[in-house]
Design brief:
The chain is mainly α. The protein is built from 5 helices and 3 strands; from the N terminus they run ααβααββα. It has a 3-stranded antiparallel sheet. A hairpin with a 5-residue loop joins β2 (64-68) and β3. α2 crosses α3 and α3 packs across α4 (48-61). It is elongated.
């Protein structure tokens, strides 16, 4: 069975999450790629084909809108719907990370006790 699309479920991949985060202010596609790489310390790198495919899907989902920049490049910005999706994902990720930190703290504490 095919995996449901994040555009249908609202469950964002890391790439989509950081692309939307980069688009809180108007920005063109090439700068989005650079900003995502910068924000993630190069842990997430997005190529041009992926970037523009994702932009098309984000536009279809209504999560971003297009603006004319200088007549040459198009700029994109998150819509209110996109912001809400981004916020929901942020809250979920924050909760999941806090739970993981609790587990890892216990595991790290166990490792420390065993090495004494």
């Amino acid at each position: 069975m095919a995996r449901p699309s994040p555009y249908d479920t609202g469950e964002l991949t890391d790439s989509i999450f950081f692309i939307l985060l980069s688009m809180l202010e108007p920005i063109h596609g090439y700068l989005v790629m650079q900003k995502v790489e910068e924000l993630t310390n190069s842990m997430i790198e997005i190529g041009p084909a992926t970037m523009y495919t994702t932009i098309a899907k984000l536009l279809s989902a209504g999560w971003i809108e297009e603006h004319e920049d200088d007549g040459i490049r198009k700029e994109y910005q998150v819509t209110d719907t996109g912001k809400e999706t981004l916020k929901q994902n942020f809250v979920k990720r924050k909760f999941l990370l806090s739970q993981a930190e609790k587990v890892m703290k216990e595991e790290l504490d166990k490792d420390e006790i065993q090495t004494r």
